[in-house]
Write a structure and sequence with these properties.
The complex is a heterodimer of chains A (about 160) and B (about 180). By secondary structure, chain A is mainly α. Chain A has six helices and no strands. Chain B is mainly alpha-helical and about 180 residues long. The chains are: A mainly alpha (about 160), B mainly alpha (about 180).
């Protein structure tokens, strides 16, 4: 359905002129059957379109063994290129480990400024075998419960002196 | 109970029914040169039968087929790089004013055809699809691979220019309409 407004004089006139143009074109339109038959003949004579994904492999490249020599050469080249890198890595690891060992024994002149009085106790492990407070030995003849309860204290005879 | 829609006729039959309209569209794509239009249409049929143009059902057959025709006409225009139709008329048009004068001096039967060749391609194509083929502006935009807004602008501008160029036709139409009313 056309979207132009048929009541517009411009559209009406244009539509009338285009109708005339269509009639004139129809008179000179070539026959469909003739064109279709010619097109079919041309299409049949033309080889079908084939999309080639890659060129066919011919000659020495067709043999699987032909790839062995280039593969070995590539492997040898890779080995030559990678060996010096492994040696350099090992040497670097040795240097790092040596430096790590010697760095622990280095003492700088300012280390004394960081020393605090008594910090040796912080670094020392406390000994648990010796008690810090010693108590007198317990007398086995005294009943500890009679000594401690208030009732027993009140029932004890007072000292007359 | 709903009836199943009848199957579409074969593509060949649909294209045969569209053959006249296809030729008209090819003429429009070839600046009204009937020989070039016939070449373009023949090439399109060869593309169809050799499998280089395949209808995939993403649009109507007419929209797809008109797109094939338009693309083929552009291909041929680029490849041949030859002067298109009405070159003799264009050779005489050294300035736009002279071109307008030549259009107004032309015979009435060829006035519209000449005016259409003077329009920019997009405006000519949209007007042809709307007035000649009876498509809507949105369908025309689909054929031309344009946005609907862009197609509408081409439609309005083309119509305005045709109205300016075809003033005698419009005057005759208004006169005839006035005579009929009296």
């Amino acid at each position: 359905m056309s979207e132009h407004h048929p009541n517009d004089h411009t559209d009406i006139t244009l539509q009338r002129e285009f109708d005339a143009l269509r009639a004139a074109d129809r008179a000179r339109t070539p026959d469909f059957a003739t064109m279709a038959a010619r097109a079919r003949a041309i299409a049949d004579a033309t080889p079908p379109v084939v999309v080639a994904t890659s060129a066919p492999i011919r000659g020495w490249r067709a043999s699987p063994l032909a790839w062995a020599v280039p593969a070995l050469a590539a492997a040898g080249l890779a080995a030559v290129l990678l060996m010096p890198r492994q040696n350099a890595d090992a040497e670097f690891e040795t240097l790092v480990s040596d430096w790590s060992r010697t760095s622990a024994s280095i003492r700088t002149p300012t280390d004394e400024l960081l020393a605090l009085p008594g910090d040796e106790y912080l670094r020392a492990t406390p000994m648990l075998s010796t008690p810090a407070i010693t108590l007198p030995p317990i007398d086995a003849s005294i009943d500890p419960s009679a000594e401690m309860t208030p009732s027993s204290r009140s029932s004890r005879p007072e000292n007359p002196s | 109970m709903a009836h199943a829609a009848p199957p579409d006729p074969p593509l060949d039959a649909q294209l045969e029914a569209l053959h006249d309209a296809s030729f008209g569209w090819a003429c429009s794509c070839c600046n009204a040169d009937a020989d070039d239009a016939a070449d373009v249409l023949q090439t399109c049929y060869v593309k169809l039968f050799s499998g280089r143009a395949v209808f995939e059902g993403r649009s109507s057959v007419r929209t797809w087929w008109f797109g094939v025709i338009r693309f083929t006409a552009m291909e041929m225009r680029r490849r041949d790089d030859r002067t298109l139709a009405l070159a003799d008329v264009r050779d005489t048009m050294t300035t736009p004013a002279q071109a307008d004068e030549a259009i107004l001096d032309a015979e009435s039967s060829t006035l519209l055809r000449l005016a259409l060749t003077r329009l920019p391609d997009r405006q000519r194509e949209v007007l042809h699809l709307v007035f000649y083929q009876g498509l809507s502006v949105s369908e025309s935009a689909q054929v031309l691979d344009l946005s609907i807004g862009s197609a509408r602008v081409h439609y309005d501008r083309g119509k305005k220019r045709l109205r300016e160029w075809l003033t005698p036709l419009f005057r005759d139409h208004v006169t005839a309409a006035g005579d009929e009313s009296t």
